[in-house]
Structures are given as structure tokens and as C-alpha cells.
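Researcher: Structure for this, please.
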Amino acid sequence: MLSDSTDLLRCKQLIERKLDWGASESWISVDFDNLQQRILDETGVSLSASTLRRIWGRVDYQHLPSNTTLNTLAQFAGYSDWRTFIKSQATSNLPPDSAGQLPVLPVKSSINWVKLSWIVGLVLLIALIGVVAFEQKPSQLNVNQYSFSSKPLTRSIPNSVIFTYNSSASPTDSVYIQQSWDPHLQTLVDKDGKTHTSIYYEPGYYVAKLLIGKQVVKEHPLIIPTNGWLGCIATKPIPVYLKPPEFIGPDMMKLPVADIQQKNVALQPQVPLVKYFNVGNFDPIALANFSFASDVKNEYGEGAAACQLTWIVLITNDMPITIPLSAKGCVSELTLLDGTNMISGKKTDLSRFGVDFSKWVHVSCKSDGHKLYYYINDELAYEAALPQKKVSIVGVAYGFLGTGAVKDIKLQTSNKVVFQAF
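Model: Predicted structure, C-alpha cell format:
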């Protein structure tokens, strides 16, 4: 057990060195959420943030991780699996001259060279056949033999979606429906079935897929809308949903700390994430010609929420546009999305997104047909090239680590106001 623990410590050190996020003792809750996403992106395996917290000792847990978890950590650290990682550690611990210390004794050759040549030839032939077989690509399926559609049942959240499909032409029983971009949200369905239902706990823009084995044969966009504004506390596995009077006022949205506590949601040491959504309630707006403005204030900065991490998200039919904010000393923790790229505060100067939340912060974003511009309190904070493909805004969302307030929301195109609130 001690050797396993030592190897796990080495693996964690390699991961920390790769991330370059500073000492793991200073990591906050959102770091483990980001690490979960990084591991999923690179390995295709989703390790929950709670599992990662246990591995890094934030939660008392006396057992070793499962083989799947160990293999995934090793892959993220740069090895094919845990066994390969262990072997590499054992090799690196050998004394550098240990092989040279063995005595060399004269040995009389008794090799049958004819027999050896036959064996070598046979091995090479088997290897060649294996390489050829491996490189042969599986035949592509005729996608016209399949059908796939979906229908959300309501405009409220949670929302069940009825998927209708035809996969009877599949040469295998490995037929899956994938709810979104996340390959781990795949469900095995009956090859000869016609209907499958899934539940969505958050609104947004998704791409549903029908897979035969690993091949996507059909996919289509799927908007899970809201009936006006939706507020929730993003607990797992199911959010705590808010009634409109609990967070919507005449001139702003806000959720008081006392109301969070009344719902038996702890504020420390794991700070909750409060979200507000409005999706599918206005005509899509081209990203190439829009302007957005809003005032926000993060209203909780105690303990583990000292960074007051905040996000504004313009939900699109592709990669979203995110405007991250934090206390001035925490901009290294920020991640910005510009519709094409993910910009990390660890590798880019995002200092203008560090703000004083004791006052309302005026945030705006616009495009001129060529570039995307981000402004904080009317000062240019960042700019990026627009995505080359056509992208449209279909919703807006806010996230506050702790809780926060929003007012004066305006979304427009060509000087025409398309959406306005508070």
C-alpha cells in the first residue's frame, strides 16, 4: 500500500507540474472543476470533481482510487496507463550502473541458428499480418439508412426530451444516443427500438447524436429553452431550482445569502454556484453584428469565496462567449471563451477582468463584423477575431460563485434592441 501511495504522490506531482497552477494546497473548488474538464478533454474519461478532491486530500478518504481512476490520472500525466507509469518509476529508481555490476561469465554458444531464423521469420510474419489488420479501417456506414429526431416536452426545467430513432440497419447492437458534446452522456439503446427519453437539468444549446459503435450517423441541434428567467443553485446531481419571486425583483435579479442558507445549502467550505438563465426567448442574433451590456455585482466574498469568481455567458449555437470576472488578485484563475478559443488567465494577461465588486461593474461586449471586443467599466479589456463560421446568440446566462446580482441587461443588433431586462 505504501508503494502505491508513493506512486500516486509522484503522479499527482507530474500533473501539478503540467498544470502549472501553483501549489495544490492553494487550489479552490473551481480548480477541481477545471481539472475535471481538462482530464475529460485529454483522455475522454470524466473523473468527478469530488473524486479529484479526495485524491488531492481535500476530503478524508483512506482507500486507494479505482483502477479506472489510476489509469486516467496516468494518461493525463503522459503515460498510456497506470501499469506503464509504475514501470517507468521503477526503472527510474534503478542504480545507474547496476547492469554493469553483474559479473560477465564466458558462455559456450549452443544456439541452433537455423531454428532461430525460422522462429524470427514466423514472428515477423505474424506481426506484419497484425499491422495490416490494424490499419484496415472499418467500413463506413450508410448514414441514409438511419433517422434521428427529438422533441422537448416543455419550456420548463427539468425538461425531458423524446428522441425518435431508427437504427435497424445497424450491423451491431452497440447503438448509442449522446445528449450533448460530452461523450460520457451516452446511453445504450435498443437497436430495434424507436424511442428513448433523456432528462436535461439545465437549459442551453446542445448537439444530440446517434452513434453506431463509435461512428456518428446522425446529429442535430437541440435547444433546451427556459420559460423566461430560470434561477438555480448548481448542486449535484440535481440543481436546487428557485421560484421567480426568490430571485427576480422589479429592477434586478439577486439571491440573498440568507435564502441560500434557508435551502440548507452550505456556503463553506465548498462555495455554491448560483446561476441565472434565459434561453430561446428571443430571435437568434448574429455574432458578427451585436452588442451586449449588463451590470453585475458578486455579493459574497467570505472564506473560500474570496476570489468572487463570476461569469457572463452568451450562449450560442457553437462555442459560447464567456466574460469572466474576479477580485483583482484572482485573475490567474479566469478562463475566457471568444467563440473559437479558450483563453487561460495563467497564460494571458486578463488583469482588466479583475474588478472591485463593492460597486456595480458595467460589462459590455460587441462585434464590428471583424473582431469581438470586451469592455469592463467602458474600458477595452480584450479583443479577438470573430469565428470564421456563422454563429448566433440564442441565450444569456450568469454564474456567481457564492451569489450575485444583475441589472440593466440589453442585447441588440444594428441599433435594434432584441432583448432587454431590468
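Researcher: Any notable elements?
Model: Residues 94-110, 131-137 have pLDDT under 50 and may be disordered. The domain at 144-224 is CATH 2.60.40 (Immunoglobulin-like).
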